[in-house]
Amino acid sequence: EIRRATVADSKTYFTHIMRHLAESGSDGDIHFHPLADSWQTREMKTYVDRYAESWTKPIDQPGWEVVWLLFQGEIAVGHVFLRSLTAVSSLHRSFLGIGMERHVRGRGWGRKLMATAIAWAREQSSLDYVDLYVFAHNEKARALYAKLGFVESEINRDQFRVRGQKIDDVHMVLNLR
Fold first, then answer.
1. pLDDT of residue 125
2. pTM given for the model
3. What distance in Å separates the CA atoms of residue 125 and residue 34, rounded to the nearest whole number?
């Protein structure tokens, strides 16, 4: 089941994020997040409070965020979010992030989550673009994003260094109009 997250889902979301990020670069998985190691020390309360604030902000104010969760029973195993950029002058754009736990990848759920977020973004008359960043070596994700209409805008060479690995980051943009 895919559904939009509410403040009541914030602890479930945080717990999913912790499991998901722990998979980045582990057990043969590629690195897919630059801060995966530092998330293990994050305090749940700090993030739960932040979610409550951003998930209830109107879309015409910086700091808004909308999250959809993929559930297996009562457990969140995937997510997609859209959030505002920080300046009022950039409220016509949103930033997208997506994450799927390893055991549910490759089953089409990522595409369904993305389609849900994109459909919502298209309904918002104030949004014109969706931006995302993806590691250059994550070819499966890049291919999915391209199929959904995202276009590569730029590649930031050696943007991150994770566990000694140099990582290029690709900026992709979807024009909603």
1. 97
2. 0.91
3. 32
